[in-house]
Specification:
It is built from nine helices and 80 strands. It is mainly beta.
Length: 1213
Amino acid sequence: MLCFSHAAKAEITCRSCQPGNKWRAQELLLKFDTSEPATGLKGEVFGRGDGAGSSGAASAESRRLRCAALSAECAPEIRAEYTEQRLKRNTDNLRAISEPGESEFAKMKVSRVQMSGDGAGFTTRTRKRARRNSDDDKVRTPGSAQSQDPGEGRSSAAGRRVTRSELRWSGEERRAAGPRQEELKLNSSTFALTGDSSHNQAMVHWSGQNSSVILMLTKLFDFNLNSVTESSLWRSTDYGATYQKLNDKVGAKTILSYLYVSPNNKRKIMLLTDPEVESSLLISSDEGATYQKYRLNFYILSLLFHPEQEDWILAYSHDQKLYSSVEFGRRWQLVHERVAPNRFYWSKMGLDKEPGLIHLETSISEGQALYVTCKLQNCTDANKGKPFPGYIDPNSLVVQDEYVFVQVSTAGRPIYYVSAKRDVFTPMKLPKYTLPKDLHVISTDENRVVAAVQEWNQNETYNLYVSDTSGVYYTLALENVVSSMGPEGNVMVDLYEVAGIKGMFLANKKTDNQVKTHITYNRGRDWRLLQAPSKDLRGNSIHCVLPYCSLHLHLHVSANPYTSGNIASRDSAPGIIVASGSIGSELTTSNVSVFITSDAGNTWRQIFDEEYAVLYLDQGGALVAIRHTPLPIRHLWLSFDEGRQWNKYSFTNTPLFVDGVLGEPGEETLIMTIFGHVSHRSEWQLVKIDFRSIFNRRCTEADYQTWHLHNQGEPCLMGVKRIYRKLKPTSRCVMGKTYSVSMTSGPCDCTEADFECDYGYERRTNGKCAPAFWFHPSSMSRSCTTGMTFLNSTGYRKVVSNNCTAGVSVEYTARRQQCPIQAPKGLHLVTSEGTLTATLGTNVTFLVFLEEGDGARTSITLDFGDGHALTYSNVSSIEDGIKHVYKAVGIYRVTATGENSLGSETVMLYLHVTCQLEYIHLSAPFVAVRNKEVNLTAVLWPSQVGTVTYIWWIGNNTEVPLITLEGSVACTFPREGISTVTVQVSAGNTILQDRKNIAVHEYFRSHLLAFSSNLDDHNPDVAEWRLDVSRVIKNSLIQATGVREDQLLVTVLPGLPTAAEFFLLPDKQLTEGKPEKNSLSEVLLSALNQNLVQFTLRPGVQVTVYAAHLSAAPLVDTSENHSGSAMLMLLSVVVVGLAVFVIYKFKRLIAACQMPSPAYPTLLGGASPLTHLGGSRGNSFVRSFFAKRNVSQPSAAINIKPFECRQLTFLKC
């Protein structure tokens, strides 16, 4: 979540921090681009700390909610990160801890933006501030009385005159105003950081309440080098009146990049050096007075402090490794590798078994991660826990308070799981047809979850959903809430919780392309528009009638919070809210004014007609306003009556470009430091302002009054009547540190307004909750056990934290009833990875869920489909999943059956068990007869890889491929010449290819060749070797016989022993297409039989080529000039000879066909490649191919019954 809280150090990109412990401090990061002219100051102000609040920020307890998407951006610790692109350091996850007395909502992971908290902290960036209300050269004044301040409002570049109002009065006083009064001055002192004029960044830390120590780190960041080139460390011990430079104490040549402070002991300081120069850290235990340096062997990207143990720290490195230290960084130990960034969390007391337990997400592959827990000092495999059974989506682990969230995507659709109080994970139940595209967890406070969901039909808005205490069942709270992208690419939802008033929220909702601000007092149960002020600040009436016109507020946190879009409230000042916005039919970014309410949003007043940052002083007893302007200023405005009157005070004699404000830690906030510069080349100017001098006494009981909280006259809010003790607007006194907000409350009778719709119910136009069309009210949880009781919903549930009693409570509260005996219904079977595939030999985890029925008395039987089955006595015994290992490739029908005395239900899942395809070979004849059918076979390695698709490109048909599930096809070639055959095999995510050229002729003669045994010793059985040797054999035959080159083809066959085949083509010039009878063939056979064909493979290796004598048959002749009886006899002899050869050579291979496999019918394409090979040459290849790899032929890929060798049915081309 996006939290600007009171952390140990300030950082410009602090976007995420979570209050968790009882601690507050102040911090500030300033960045100033010295390349800008004086009139074009680049500065952004982000409020930090617990002191003042502002119109542009949330207070320590009030939050601008950021949806943190199953993201790790907030946890109850301090997390710090680096921000520069190269260094990648920032404090997005800086975690702050709250003080006693802080509201429970402080434990919520949300966006907290504070222009000032209990110490008015600002953070600034190097960006130019834009003036919104500058239609002319004059700056608009807050009132009608205007005056010119010498030296203020003048542009040093243009030198133009700018008018400013001298005083801000009420309407009556303004009209009766007399002569100009003497200028009011504040007690202030200025200190210049001499020698740092070139430094363009600064980080500031105020040690904390009751401490006068301020640390400031200034840096020169070179944007060309993307690194820090100079740094200075300054320390003040007198609340910022003077500073001492400490460069000599940390090393004159040491370049510092970041400053961190322990959240549990603010005296402990940690400084990081620039890793471009050296990787080390400096540690101080005396608030930065002295330091010790320690070398590091890794580069720190982010830090996470323990919420309770002051010396325990987690450090995340640039190479995705997580380190731990229990000595505040003096020694480090590797915890885990491949950890996802920002996805590591400390354990929470009362929920986790050990205080040193770490929750983290580890990366397994590009699309898979694991949620594991391990011990701080002993994170071994034996000590790791895996709370979620299976893989999760990367960057989805979120641990917030008592809830843990993960995401698992199945078939492209995410499924969100939640675990409450570290219990088992359960899918989050959103309304059935929500179909979320994106989901972000906004808060987890007070035992419920608030989630922002972008549904399937939304693009720029989100719907807000609230859960029950289990975090499982969600109902709609508000539709179409506006969202925007934050500076870190995070999603920002325009939702703001008001501090000091439990259950009060503000939200910007988009309706008919108009953005309107809505308010709720009962945690989203009811929303209404804001009533606009009746008069403007000049006393003129404003005609604005609901619902056509209303007040709209900027709730988003822009990249530059020193402009519009800011809001502030305080726990110590309940009912007071300051925000910028506009009046009209919708929210606009033009004509932005500042508004205030003193009665918790019932009525509003306009206090400025241009943008000001408004900060809280003295527990909210006074307000300070600083104008947003790119020009230098020397005045600020003060109000002691909740913004009704404003007085202008000067805080410096020389106009100053304001870069940021840092307030004293603590609730009283009476000391403030303004950071700025006189010109873009000057040193940092630090102006300390002590507001104590403007108060003449301390408050007494007579200075307070009671205030009744209400919503348009309705006093019962969240089930109680609340009465607060507040300072009277007429009292000008100091409340001091001893002041605390006091409230008395009385119970109210419950009404229908205290209940929201339960899961599965929707609110109709008449205000009643009725079942949604998809919901069955009679459905029961699987946890309902016979003999026990369950809560039968009435369609309503009480709003979380609502304390109403009696009234209609009995009518709307769920009724406890006996669990009836019910047959199982809604049985679900999935794999833990959410996929329908598994890898051979690996564990597959099956998850079984039962929606309805007696889970404790319903037995579950799981049949894995491979002859193994398991039975469990009840559903709860298999909540961690059921693991199984498959030993054969195939498609298995996995069946889960739930059964009790009333009935049963069965669910099936078809699981594809596969293995990796490594190699394919296209078996095809080298020469084919025109218009004669030939067999093409793709042989796989391994032969059984699962479901396979074959894509064929045959001959000249290159545009439309033939797609089959069979590994063989039969084709004919109509034209003579060279035809190319290409086959691709697709198995899972793997696609492999092989290609062959086939010579097509009208007829040919062929014969097998054998070789002397010494050739086998030099045969590597690779295609390139076979091509080269084929060429050598052909040349040897030509030399020995005189056969012309174009009449002879030779190819060496794959496998061992080495064999080849020659093809004798007719001489068409002599025979005119008629085959020669015996002349050339007899010459070739004679030369072979006389050992005349020889070649030298390498020196000393002489190879002799023989004619292979399988039978007494002559050469195979494909001509049609033979008699039928002769051909029949010839083919019979050949077939018998080949059969003898095949049986002799493949007796092991044939035996391997008999292999048991899963018990389902064979699908198309399931035949073994052995049955697809046509002719001895194909069989010879298969034999040698698999024999060389010492593997046997397994059964068909998707056979379940015993494999049967069968005839091949060819698919015609």
